Every structure is written in structure tokens, then in C-alpha cells.
Hints:
Shape: globular
Helix content: 55-70%
Radius of gyration: 18 Å
GO molecular function: hydrolase activity
Number of helices: 6
InterPro entries: YdjM-like
Organism: Natrinema saccharevitans
Pfam families: YdjM
Mean pLDDT: 93
Number of domains: 1
Transmembrane segments: 6-25, 32-54, 66-85
Oligomer: single chain
Distance between the termini: 48 Å
Amino acid sequence: MPDLLTHVLVGYAIGTALSVLYGWFDRGHVTLVMLGALSPDLAKVDLVVPAIVVSDLLGVPFRWSALHTVVGSVLAAALCVLLFAPEYRRTVLALVALGAASHHLLDLGLVTPTGESYAVFWPLTSVRLPAGDLYLSTDRWPALVAGTCAALARAVARRREHREGDATTAD
Length: 171
């Protein structure tokens, strides 16, 4: 599933680039961006637990696809934040939201048969933005580009870490 890998790699590249820019940004922060980049795809739980099963259990209409919207991402981020101590919650929310935003931006570039993207802002509005028609979710080249960006970001981060290590040993 190249689509899922692409989202993880883009989240890693963004998080690693931020770690180069900000000294306080460590591996845990990069992981939060990566988790955020995966959060809209929680809707793929439908492959394991069909929505009809959940609907029957709860007795109310239910669809997993609501998780693959901005509102679903906000709810997932809010639930994730509850796992952290209060002093870290603002940072966690921002990083998970950043990863989720990258996911939605990438998905807006998908080729669709209708030329329209999914209703990313549902339930606030059912407006469907024009699709970017840049790639299919099954294309492998976006994962290769994302992997290259992630490798470059990692190389720059390692070089910075190495340079900082040399500076501390010189003191």
C-alpha cells in the first residue's frame, strides 16, 4: 500500500526537517508528526471491522469514513492529546495536527474519476474541492519521492547532530 507508506515518509520528512530547525525537537516529536500523518487513515479500520458491524452494535448509523476528514482528524488528535501530561498537550496537538494536515494535502492531489476530491471539511460543509489529479493512490512514485525527501532530511539531521557533537567535544 504505497499510499500509507507515502504518508508516513512525508510525516517523517516534515518532523525531521523541524528537528533541524528547532533544537528542542527530538525523535519523539518526529514520531508524533508521523502518527498525525497516519491518523486520517484510521478510517481503514473498516477493512477489519466493517461499519455495519459497529452500526449494529451501537444501534445508530455509523461510518468509518468520517475519520478521514478534518473534523475526524481533530477528534483523533484530541483523543491522542489525552494520553499526555497537561504540560505537553499543546505541543502534541500541534504536531499531530501538522501530520494530519500533510495527509489531507497529499490526498487532495489524488486522481479521482469525478475530478473532485473527498468532502474533506465534512460535516462542516459537504463541498468537494477540485482534485489535484497528480497521482493515483496505487502509484509508487510518490512513495519514492517521499522516501527521497525523508532520506535527505535524515542526512541533514545527522550532519547537524555530528557537527553539534564536534562542537561540544571541542569545548
